[in-house]
Amino acid sequence: LKMSWLWLYLPLHLLMATCLCHSIKAPTTSSQQSFKADLFNFYHSLILADGKETTIHLLKDIPKRYYFVLEEGRVLAPFSITVTPCDVPIEWSILVYKSPPGFPEKATPGDHDTREVSKSQKAPSMVSTIFNYKGNSVETYMGMSSHSALYLLEFLSTERDTHITVYLTTDTTSGHLYPELPTDPRIDVIGVGHTTVTLTWKHSPSVLQHRESIQYCLLVNEKHNYKSLCAAETAIRSSGMKLPPTLALSLSPYLLEPQQVMILSNSELSIINKVSGGEVRQVCMGTKNTYTVPNLSPSTQYYFDVFIVNLLTNASAAYTGTFARTLEEPEPKVMEMKDGKVVHVVLDGKKQKFYSLQYQARHKKIHFTFQLCRGQIRVHITRNGKTVASENLSGLRYLSLKGKLLDTYLVQLRSTEESNSSVKVQASPHFHKPLFPLLPESLKIKSFSKLRTCRSVTIAWLGTQEESKYCVYRKRIEEDQIWKELQSTDRCSGPESRHKSEKVLCKYFYDLNLQRAVTTETIKGLEAGTFYLFDVYLFGPSGIPVRYHSKVVKTRKKC
């Protein structure tokens, strides 16, 4: 029987299915072609394509098998198989089914009867495993194949569902799908700073041959190195970051310029994403083999992977990843605080740095006063190295702390917004000499809609049991400027920052009964259908004002 050995070693289910289409006769050349065609059509999904990268999806604990047979007439032809795991480690192996020695490959002339192969005709099994691997590295097997051999590739994932890519080629002379790595594929760290790391690597031979279609791409993250671009993309997607199907084909190579990122647009150098595992960024830098990664966090370990990408085929190869830890940030300068002296601190929200103030107690009981001027700020206070207070500031805040003489207090302030924030701070043992006036329960200004007219507005605010001075200011404002004005307001600034024409009046009042400690004021001489911003300033014994929350009111358009 011509090709009878193949029937012996094909899996049983394949043999049975094929027998539905053929009687086992000594086939002619045409019947051989028919056999191959039926075999191909029935098991098309299980035949590995030659010269094409194939994506294979694996279910946990379910092996998947692919077959590969050389065309007839090709004896001892070289071939290579490259397998790239895109997530978890996998197991894969190559088995070869060879024709048994002395087993007839051709039928006896004139013998055309249907017959079965007897047990005595079955030669010992000629199945052997020529390669096996377990792991998540990119592995390539190169060998010589014979037309009288059938190859079986088996893949298995034991951790979870995953996918891999497999590239089979029997044409090893016309070039490589994957870019070539240099003899030494390591990435060298040649410089480390507080917020930067400088890397260099040896050029790929592919860059010299195909400069226009080859690009280096760098991946930076805080978790671990990746052994392939496929694995990196899978991990990034699983973390919640949205990516296009591939990094390399997001932009045409003719549109790419050095230091442009392909995964977003041609107008950005890189993209930085916050994910569950920290920060991930991707950047492509053309054919440059030295790059300084900017804007890193101090005292943080980063992992760096470089991929050489063929923009025409989307195939890539990974250099051996490296890692580096940025230098610790130098200790911030600490400002000494003096009793009763007010310190005005402005914090840069973009840098997210702590500003430190130190105070040495000369009394057992210490009083800290914070007046939030702009933005959002978090305060952290330690006494002799131990935390005694930590909270977000809002408006005006008093903190009374009791300790020992000569205790050292460290006050650390940090902006919790990207925009700049500012705060006034005072430390003093004398609470009976407060920096700020006694405050009412609320610093809100109320307006009465029913009392609005085209020319006047009535507002009200709470007072205290202590006689104090209140000054009212107004400012005409456009509707599209309201949000910006309210957000940029410096709550620590006093009337000295206002134009004289904005002042409406000043008055004194108090009431020992807090239920009646409220005052109203009708502001006249306004324009119809116009927005106005109203502010009230409260002055205490120290003369330092406290600003109520600004109120925007619009006069009636028609009366």
TrEMBL record:
Ranges where the Fibronectin type-III domain occurs: 179-316, 437-545
Entry-linked InterPro entries: FN3_dom, FN3_sf, Ig-like_fold, NDNF, NDNF_C, NDNF_Fn(III)_1, NDNF_N
Coiled-coil segments: none
Range of residues in the leader sequence: 1-21
GO terms of biological process kind: nervous system development
Keywords: Glycoprotein, Neurogenesis, Repeat, Secreted, Signal
Subcellular location(s) of the protein: Secreted
Molecular function (Gene Ontology), one example: heparin binding
Designated name of the protein: Protein NDNF
Organism: Vireo altiloquus (Black-whiskered vireo)
Gene that this polypeptide is encoded by: Ndnf_0
